[in-house]
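Worked example (supplementary).
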Amino acid sequence: MSRYMGTAVKRVEDPRFLQGQGKYVANLSLPGMAYVAVKRSPLAHAKILGIDSSEAEALDGVIAVYTGQDLLDGGASFACGSLPCGFTPPDIVTPAHNPVAVDKVRHVGDAIAVVVAESSYIAEDALDLIDVDLDPLPVVVDARAALEDDAPLVHDDVGTNLSFHWPLGDEDAVNEALSDSDHVVELEFVNQRLIANAMEPRACAAEWDPSSESMTVWTTSQNPHTIRLLLGAFTLGIPEHKLRVISPDVGGGFGSKIFHYPEEVIVPWVARAIGRPAKWVASRTESYVTDAQGRDHITRAKIGVNDDGTITGLHVTTWANLGAYLSTFAPLIPTALYITLLSGVYKIPVIFGESYGAFTNTVPVDAYRGAGRPEASYLLETMVDLAARRLDMDPVELRRKNLIPSDEFPYQTPVALEYDSGNYQGLFDKIEELSEYQSLRQEQEKARAEGRLVGIGFSSCIEASGPAPSAVAVGLGAAIGLFESGSIRVHPTGKISVFTGSHSHGQGHETTFAQIVADELGVAMEDVEIVHGDTDRIPYGVGTYGSRSAAIGGSALVKSAEKIRDKLKKIAAHMLEASVEDMVYDQDEGTISVSGSPESAKTFAELAFAVTTADNLPEGMEPGLEETSFYDPANFTFPASAHTAMVEIDSKTGEVEVQSYAAVDDVGNVINPMIVEGQILGGIVQGVGQALWEHGIYGEDGQLLSGSMLSYAMPRADGFPSIAIDRIETPSPHNPLGVKGAGEMGTIAATATISSAVLDALAPLGVTHLNMPLTAEKIHNAIVAAGNGGGE
Amino acid sequence: MRVTIEVNGQTHESEVEPRILLVDFLRDDLGLTGTNVGCDTSQCGACTVHMDGMAVKSCTVLAVQADGSSVTTIEGLASNGHLHPMQQAFWDEHGLQCGFCTPGMIMASVKLVDGNREISDEEVRHGLEGNLCRCTGYQNIVKAVKAGAAAMGGQS
Amino acid sequence: MYPRPFDYVRADSVEQALDLRSETGGRFIAGGHSLLPMMKIRMTAPNALVDIGRIDGLKGIAADNGGFTIGALTTHSMVAAEGAEGFPAALSEAASMIGDPLVRNRGTVGGNVAHADPASDLPTVFSALGATMTAASKGGATRDIGAPEFFTGLFESALNSDELLTTVKVDAERAGRASAYAKLFNPASRYAVVGACAVVEIGEDGSCAACTVAVGGLTPKATVLESVANALTGNPVTEDSAESAARESIDEVGDDIMGDVYAGVDYRRQMLPVFVARAINAAASRAG
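After joint prediction of all chains, the assembly is encoded as:
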């Protein structure tokens, strides 16, 4: 019996946030600190002919102005290197990415010069005084257009805008299957550019200690060790053991804070150059043009289906927009996290998918909540809906016909992945019950009879979470293994510090990981403190993304707890003069006793202290009670979901109202249901945001036309009904917690669900597809076109 | 310019440049970093504080405009070591994840319920139009505000 | 994003405010919710701000023989919450749709109107209500400017740089009519994609005895739609007649429509009669 796991323990990290005591990077104040601001390109593509910073340097309170060349040369600081790419499949083209542009600028927001001043206000004044002579170049913003022969080259030296072509599957077999199918449904569509908009803008601070020649960098990162590795090995060349990277409280990430950003090079560089601590905090406007963005695919897909509803094959070609530079994990997203997910929860005999990664004059694109998997789910669910419509079959019925049966796990898909476990029929049963699917359809029938545009959306999604077995990841092109570390240090009084390589920026690890360790060792949660986000305190870390923390980071802690228990059992056996095999560790009580004689029990605290006095340990045993494990998973985990929504469209304006939303998710075992529910609710709203409102719109000239919260529509509280959620639990068989990961499922499912609902509402008008976001204007135009007999 | 601003019950006399935003005065001059800045277009509400009894966006108020005013920030909400009922409700109902929007969200919520102990879902959802959260999906915030309103027992 | 440096002076009276403005050449600031965001992105950089926010007597709403006088420093929250009998419903309604509650706590009627943002809500409502803006100038002189004439163009008003808007008045006749404001929100900014205000008097026979309709959001300035009013006046107000009268708006507004990335010109044009009709119907139902 576990005492904490499986229960909705209130979060232990909350009191500091509730009282304004969060330790965000922007809050950091160091003696003598200088403020950094970055001059950014107003143009999407231009040659830098000259930079005149003399006026800026003359301004009172300005300490220095630096250019890209200064950073490459090093001067009084380090010679900076190019920002590397951490995922490089075969034959990939990886152009240089200087932290500050030297030859030309390649997207609006590209760094041109760096100001250091006595205050952030003065630094911004100085930016206005820097005169940059830019010679505009032709611009390309669309991934497919970028691959045409006459497209402007984003990186002249590599001679192409094609970074990679990544095919997977047997294309001939798919073509044959499609030509043998009763029906082939074909669609070309766009999965639009998104902007993560974590509420905390990125920030970075740094302090150089000349006496030890070491650097401390505070940064808003989901993975401080990765940043340390990249700073050490590539961008600053500071030896890793002289480099400390701290990610304190981080205000949301959603993927956008995984990557190694130019400012993480600039700020420490400045700190050493001026011999003072330095800090940079992004304005939201800066975030819009510098944080790595998400999605942005153009896709052409064909699905084959027979009269009885059986799916026969799937063919997918995607042009993925990478932006102007390869962000740290950019090539991973439209490849190994996308094409491999195209089987969804369905048995599809043959699948072929390929993606072309293209450079454009836009902000770099990388992982954003879901990262590749929402694109795959949206694609597949959209195609399945269209197939159902072609066959005039209920979309849920068609899906059910093709589900992978529960007794076929582990299931090998035609696109490389082997699903660990699942119960998709169970998901469907539960969502039909929770959403009252049949009565929703009746309600819809009635509404349609009244001429109202009411739609019901459905999606059933899969996710490959918990990345990843290191051999698989590195085999595909990852530069590092994706295991995780977890250390447990038991102090002499029995209090426990836990060091995890995972990083919490909203996920609540300080609570869930304490629940795990407290249960594993039979101690009180309040005796366990979780430490994360500091490379000097944590042995090693890979970090938090891909819904991996519980499955990988949590499992590492389970392994370390096992080692602690084993050691304590040996000590107890020695003290009680019994054999180790006879010792019973009671995880409820936190005691060890000889089997059958509970009165012999030694408490956890007694044993912890015995390790410290160390005067009566078994022969050859070292004192001290601290264990570290590095957990490398055997496979991905495969959370799955089934969501439904009902929407109504205002036929006069095209506005969509989400009337109800129900979600059933299977994220495996659940450590803290309150936190898991919170992750799923938040994910759903983010996914709805993509379906209805959010869009990073680039003009032909490469200007980001939705570059602020005034024009990029963020989901607000008033856009939603109360969401009904439930779950089933199909444990992952290959990690000790049986967990699968809960961070992204909501987002992945919700986008497809809402799009499905809106298109269902418009189906009677003959509308077959609309690209997201499904804005009032777009929908209204479709309604008008349908009224004119045009359909779509 | 010399300003006198009462913050969380304590009077501060400071010399400020006219262009300093109230939020920067609170964060940089007084070290009250609980009030966050999440945008620069007066949209997100992370910087919400109470000024003379009203919830306002402190990124869109000059410190000199607050001269003579009484300001309460998130740091001033708990009293005698006890969380304010609204803070407690956000904790109980899991109304926060990363915590960045939380101070502003709580400050806005305290004024939103303003004596209305039975505030509806819809009133809360509309009343929080000016506060963005990217983590929670708002549902637990709505629950928290309702619970907080009830716990405040009609007090504002 | 921080404003450029400026001088700051504070006025205790209208007269002092006008003097300080002419001495400094600066701009007036009240709630600052139109001005400060523009200063932060450095779209505008006044050399000085004259803070009028504390001037006595400019804040509040006074009933005046059936009409209302709204002080320039009255906040949107105050307008939204105004419960006086006969206070135009459209005005409270529009005020409650500005920005968000926090913005409404600081933003002022005077600041909003003087800013003459085409996507703002109050100019439309004041135009339909035929409100009178009173501007003070040095030496105690005042000048009355009627809406919609007050709104001369995109972010432009009839206010001279040496004048200070002190009050907005709605007369008893218009205030006595039923009114409503209907708005299509931009989901990001909450500004009006289309905003329509109808002020309607229903005669004893149930037909429209008098009516004014104004729109904003899509036009460079708030615009009164005579043709819609003409089509409706004298006729019973039904959903059909409202819809048919509203269609007149398309011709009257003509090509004077602005689009943006959220909503293009054609879409806005098609939304125009929809929201005009909604405003008329809502006003008529209030009259009923």
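Two points are worth noting when inspecting this output. The beta strands of chain B are 2-7, 10-15, 48-51, 54-57, 70-72. The longest helix of chain B spans residues 139-152.
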